[in-house]
Specification:
Blueprint (H helix, E strand, L loop, with lengths): L5 E4 L7 E7 L3 H8 E3 L13 E9 L2 E11 L10 E7 L2 H13 L3 E2 L4 H8 L5 H12 L3 H11 L2 H18 L1
Parallel strand pairs: 1-7
Antiparallel strand pairs: 1-2, 2-6, 3-4, 4-5, 5-6
Helix pairs in contact: 3-4, 4-5
Protein backbone atom coordinates (compact mmCIF):
# COMPACT_ATOMS: atom_id res chain seq x y z
CA UNK A 1 0.00 0.00 0.00
CA UNK A 2 1.26 3.45 -0.89
CA UNK A 3 1.88 5.70 2.07
CA UNK A 4 2.20 8.96 0.16
CA UNK A 5 -0.44 11.13 -1.43
CA UNK A 6 -0.03 12.19 -5.05
CA UNK A 7 -1.52 14.91 -7.25
CA UNK A 8 -1.52 15.70 -10.95
CA UNK A 9 -3.27 17.85 -13.50
CA UNK A 10 -5.59 15.46 -15.32
CA UNK A 11 -6.69 17.65 -18.23
CA UNK A 12 -4.93 19.12 -21.23
CA UNK A 13 -3.77 22.72 -20.95
CA UNK A 14 -5.76 25.43 -22.68
CA UNK A 15 -9.34 24.42 -21.92
CA UNK A 16 -11.95 26.40 -20.04
CA UNK A 17 -12.07 23.76 -17.29
CA UNK A 18 -9.15 22.02 -15.60
CA UNK A 19 -9.07 19.01 -13.32
CA UNK A 20 -6.56 18.01 -10.65
CA UNK A 21 -6.61 14.52 -9.15
CA UNK A 22 -5.39 13.75 -5.65
CA UNK A 23 -4.98 10.15 -4.45
CA UNK A 24 -3.61 8.53 -1.33
CA UNK A 25 -4.20 8.18 2.39
CA UNK A 26 -4.28 11.96 3.01
CA UNK A 27 -6.08 13.02 -0.18
CA UNK A 28 -9.24 14.17 1.56
CA UNK A 29 -7.56 15.92 4.49
CA UNK A 30 -5.00 17.68 2.26
CA UNK A 31 -7.72 18.90 -0.12
CA UNK A 32 -9.77 20.05 2.89
CA UNK A 33 -6.92 22.28 4.04
CA UNK A 34 -7.14 24.43 0.90
CA UNK A 35 -10.87 24.09 0.14
CA UNK A 36 -13.85 25.70 1.87
CA UNK A 37 -17.39 24.60 0.91
CA UNK A 38 -19.63 27.49 -0.12
CA UNK A 39 -22.89 26.53 1.58
CA UNK A 40 -23.06 23.10 3.17
CA UNK A 41 -20.86 23.89 6.14
CA UNK A 42 -19.59 20.28 5.99
CA UNK A 43 -15.90 19.74 5.50
CA UNK A 44 -14.80 17.20 2.91
CA UNK A 45 -13.85 14.80 5.70
CA UNK A 46 -17.51 14.87 6.81
CA UNK A 47 -18.95 14.57 3.29
CA UNK A 48 -20.39 11.43 1.76
CA UNK A 49 -18.46 9.74 -1.05
CA UNK A 50 -19.52 10.20 -4.68
CA UNK A 51 -20.58 13.78 -4.10
CA UNK A 52 -19.66 17.10 -5.66
CA UNK A 53 -19.12 20.05 -3.37
CA UNK A 54 -19.01 23.64 -4.60
CA UNK A 55 -16.65 26.02 -2.85
CA UNK A 56 -13.43 27.97 -3.03
CA UNK A 57 -9.74 27.21 -2.99
CA UNK A 58 -7.87 29.52 -0.64
CA UNK A 59 -4.22 30.38 -0.15
CA UNK A 60 -4.30 31.86 3.32
CA UNK A 61 -7.04 34.47 3.06
CA UNK A 62 -6.77 34.87 -0.72
CA UNK A 63 -9.39 33.24 -2.95
CA UNK A 64 -7.66 31.38 -5.79
CA UNK A 65 -10.72 30.00 -7.60
CA UNK A 66 -14.29 28.77 -7.26
CA UNK A 67 -14.26 25.00 -7.79
CA UNK A 68 -16.14 21.72 -7.57
CA UNK A 69 -14.55 18.92 -5.55
CA UNK A 70 -15.49 15.28 -6.20
CA UNK A 71 -14.95 12.87 -3.31
CA UNK A 72 -14.20 9.15 -3.50
CA UNK A 73 -13.37 6.94 -0.54
CA UNK A 74 -11.21 3.81 -0.60
CA UNK A 75 -11.60 1.19 -1.89
CA UNK A 76 -14.27 2.54 -4.26
CA UNK A 77 -12.13 4.77 -6.47
CA UNK A 78 -10.03 4.32 -9.59
CA UNK A 79 -6.86 3.77 -7.55
CA UNK A 80 -8.54 1.98 -4.65
CA UNK A 81 -7.44 4.83 -2.37
CA UNK A 82 -9.13 7.92 -0.98
CA UNK A 83 -9.32 10.42 -3.84
CA UNK A 84 -10.48 13.91 -4.61
CA UNK A 85 -10.81 15.60 -7.95
CA UNK A 86 -10.74 19.38 -8.08
CA UNK A 87 -12.48 20.89 -11.10
CA UNK A 88 -11.42 24.50 -11.51
CA UNK A 89 -11.00 27.05 -14.27
CA UNK A 90 -8.49 25.87 -16.88
CA UNK A 91 -6.01 28.71 -16.61
CA UNK A 92 -2.43 27.44 -16.43
CA UNK A 93 -1.85 29.90 -13.60
CA UNK A 94 -4.81 28.58 -11.58
CA UNK A 95 -3.90 24.92 -12.16
CA UNK A 96 -0.27 25.49 -11.16
CA UNK A 97 -1.27 27.54 -8.13
CA UNK A 98 -3.61 24.78 -6.87
CA UNK A 99 -0.89 22.18 -7.51
CA UNK A 100 1.59 24.27 -5.48
CA UNK A 101 -0.89 24.50 -2.61
CA UNK A 102 -1.45 20.73 -2.63
CA UNK A 103 2.30 20.05 -2.70
CA UNK A 104 2.84 22.56 0.11
CA UNK A 105 0.22 20.66 2.16
CA UNK A 106 1.98 17.29 1.71
CA UNK A 107 1.20 15.87 -1.74
CA UNK A 108 3.87 15.00 -4.21
CA UNK A 109 3.62 15.25 -7.98
CA UNK A 110 2.45 11.97 -9.51
CA UNK A 111 4.70 10.21 -11.99
CA UNK A 112 3.29 9.39 -15.45
CA UNK A 113 1.10 6.30 -15.16
CA UNK A 114 1.19 6.27 -11.37
CA UNK A 115 -2.59 6.41 -10.91
CA UNK A 116 -3.00 3.29 -13.06
CA UNK A 117 -0.04 1.66 -11.31
CA UNK A 118 -1.75 2.21 -7.96
CA UNK A 119 -5.01 0.81 -9.36
CA UNK A 120 -3.12 -2.32 -10.44
CA UNK A 121 -1.23 -2.66 -7.13
CA UNK A 122 -4.47 -2.21 -5.17
CA UNK A 123 -6.24 -4.94 -7.15
CA UNK A 124 -8.59 -2.61 -9.03
CA UNK A 125 -7.44 -3.99 -12.39
CA UNK A 126 -5.23 -6.74 -13.76
CA UNK A 127 -2.09 -6.23 -15.85
CA UNK A 128 -3.97 -6.61 -19.12
CA UNK A 129 -6.39 -3.87 -18.09
CA UNK A 130 -3.56 -1.59 -16.96
CA UNK A 131 -1.92 -2.01 -20.36
CA UNK A 132 -5.30 -1.24 -21.99
CA UNK A 133 -5.31 2.16 -20.28
CA UNK A 134 -2.09 3.04 -22.09
CA UNK A 135 -3.53 1.68 -25.36
CA UNK A 136 -6.68 3.78 -24.93
CA UNK A 137 -4.65 6.92 -24.27
CA UNK A 138 -2.56 6.25 -27.39
CA UNK A 139 -5.51 5.21 -29.62
CA UNK A 140 -5.64 7.16 -32.87
CA UNK A 141 -8.50 5.33 -34.58
CA UNK A 142 -11.99 4.23 -33.62
CA UNK A 143 -10.97 0.58 -33.93
CA UNK A 144 -7.93 1.02 -31.67
CA UNK A 145 -10.07 2.77 -29.06
CA UNK A 146 -12.76 0.06 -29.34
CA UNK A 147 -10.16 -2.70 -28.84
CA UNK A 148 -8.62 -0.91 -25.86
CA UNK A 149 -12.01 -0.42 -24.20
CA UNK A 150 -12.77 -4.13 -24.64
CA UNK A 151 -9.46 -5.03 -23.02
CA UNK A 152 -10.03 -2.47 -20.26
CA UNK A 153 -13.42 -4.06 -19.52
CA UNK A 154 -11.63 -7.37 -19.03
CA UNK A 155 -12.43 -9.12 -22.33
CA UNK A 156 -8.89 -10.49 -22.73
CA UNK A 157 -8.70 -11.57 -19.09
CA UNK A 158 -12.05 -13.38 -19.32
CA UNK A 159 -10.98 -15.18 -22.52
CA UNK A 160 -7.69 -16.29 -20.96
CA UNK A 161 -9.53 -17.46 -17.83
CA UNK A 162 -12.01 -19.47 -19.92
CA UNK A 163 -9.16 -21.14 -21.83
CA UNK A 164 -7.29 -21.85 -18.59
CA UNK A 165 -10.41 -23.33 -16.95
CA UNK A 166 -11.05 -25.49 -20.02
CA UNK A 167 -7.47 -26.77 -20.04
CA UNK A 168 -7.63 -27.51 -16.31
CA UNK A 169 -10.86 -29.47 -16.85
CA UNK A 170 -9.18 -31.52 -19.61
CA UNK A 171 -6.08 -32.15 -17.47
CA UNK A 172 -8.15 -33.22 -14.47
CA UNK A 173 -9.92 -35.88 -16.57
Amino acid sequence: MNQDTICAIATAQGGAIGSIRVSGPDAISITSRIFTPAKSGKTLTESRPYTLTFGRIYDGGEIIDEVLVSLFRAPHSYTGEDCTEITCHGSSYILQRVMQLLIHQGCRMAQPGEYTQRAFLNGKMDLSQAEAVADLIDAETAQAAHNAVGQLEGALSRTVTEIYDGLMAIISR
